[in-house]
Amino acid sequence: MAGAGGRAPLGLRRWLSSAAPAPRVCVVGSGPAGFYTAQHILKHHGGALVDIYEKLPVPFGLVRFGVAPDHPEVKNVINTFTQTARSERCTYYGNVTVGRDVTVPELQQAYHAVVLSYGAEDSRVLGIPGENLPGVYSARAFVGWYNGLPENQDLKPDLTCETALILGHGNVALDIARILLSPLQLLRKTDITDSSLAALACSKVKRVWLVGRRGPLQVAFTIKELREMINVPGARAVLDPADFVGLESAVKGEGSVPCFSRLGLTLADAPRPRKRLTELMIKTALEKPVEMQAAAAPREWGLKFQRSPQEVLPSADGRRARGIRMALTRLEGSGDSAKAIPTGDVEELECGLVLSSIGYRSLPLDPAVPFDSQRGVIPNSSGRVEGVPGLYCSGWVKRGPTGVIITTMNDSFDTAQSLLEDLQGGVLDISPSREGFGLVESILHSRGVRPVSFSDWEKIDAAEVARGKAAGKPREKIVDPAEMLRIIGH
């Protein structure tokens, strides 16, 4: 990587020794993609000035609003992001919605380069009858609700049923199942919002099914999350041994058991994490629960495979969800490329709560920015937006909503590197002086928009931590943007 260690690359040294204007870079979005992009530019260019714009008053995106409350260690990256925001060459402007308060072309007038890192703000739809019935929610909205995302604060999910069904076999699906079934005394010690904790205290949900179209070898969750789910106190795992027939010998490398090809069996060459994950599912499925333990577990959860949702079934009065009809599937192909083909058989499952966890989706931000609505990404090459010099993208809006924070870090460094190479190669002309925030400020002022600074955020942060301390938790998130602005005297 050019300039990653030791001396600055030649082009950069030449820039440092000249009196050329400082490159002004604008990053849209203050989640992991935005902060990692800014971090890399600041680290590898001694003169660049980076401004980060965020539509909410508070920063950190999915680290704040997506990571499960009982996973505080994942949020430690906030310390690194805070260091970046406090750099004298970096400025944070919250409470500014790009595409509405200021357009992308206006940002391009103000900055030498603009990086779009605004993530995935929508959910993929199921596209089946009944998905708009009360009792059906997207995983994104449900996670936003218990994590204090302002737009989801009024969700009020109905938790009066005994059985919940989550469509999807990823880590987010397991997060939701864990939150629904975890003992309240564990959740009380986290930064889960007060209102969602109150709702969970009255929840009647005692059974959660996680349903996927494909088989055990195609689940998208990781072993860490599965182990956590298995270890939820007072909740027993119900996995059907029949779903794993033949897999045990395949895990041990004793052939791929052709008669079980419907499972998409090719474990001989599977990576070690996949083998270990499969072994843990098999062990959980085959373990006979001790009678006492089973009796003592008032709640249960399980995995259902090779079922594809066809319709959310309405209650007799048509006013809410009462169940779901699923097509049974068989697998064609194997491994991650296996496809689920309906067999013609169907099954109905009673449930009063349906959570769709089939993925997030990015939305177009501004008519001036190319957007592939089929794939939900901005068309780009190594982060360079196609056909628009000086415009870049990083994170989920660049590659689609996949991967964990480390994936986003590497992806963002890749985009930042493209931008630095363009600076060095003269692709980005920094000779015309750009006003940066000076120009944007007058635009925002004319539209009645007052940005929030990083030190403003630190006041909100201090208020949240103080409220949390009083309640014996790490923080009590403020969920209303108007209240956030009152705290900082806006």
Notes on the structure:
The chain has 490 residues and is α/β, with parallel strands linked by helices. The protein has helices at residues 10-17, 32-44, 61-65, 77-85, 104-110, 139-147, 171-181, 184-187, 194-201, 223-230, 247-251, 272-286, 291-296, 396-399, 405-424, 437-446, 454-471, 481-487, and strands spanning 24-28, 49-53, 90-93, 113-116, 122-123, 136-138, 163-167, 207-211, 235-237, 299-304, 307-314, 321-332, 339-350, 353-356, 360-361, 380-381, 384-385, 391-393. It has 18 helices and 18 strands. β1, α2 (32-44) and β2 form a beta-alpha-beta unit. The strands form 5 sheets. A 6-stranded parallel sheet has the order 6-14-7-8-10-9. The protein is globular.
Give keywords.
18 strands, 6-stranded parallel beta sheet, globular, 5-stranded parallel beta sheet, 34% helix, alpha/beta, disordered N terminus, 490 residues
- Runs in which pLDDT lies below 50 for 5 or more consecutive residues are 1-7, 255-265
* Helical fraction: 25-40%
Name the structural class: alpha/beta
Estimated share of beta-strand residues: 15-25%
Mean pLDDT: 90
Distance linking N and C termini: 43 Å
Q: Give the oligomeric state of the chains in this entry, treating copies of one chain as homo and distinct chains as hetero.
A: single chain
Given the structure, what is the number of helices?
Answer: 18
DSSP E strands, number? 18
Strand line-up in the sheet with most strands = 6-14-7-8-10-9
Query: What composes the largest sheet?
Result: 6 strands, parallel
Q: Indicate the overall shape.
A: globular
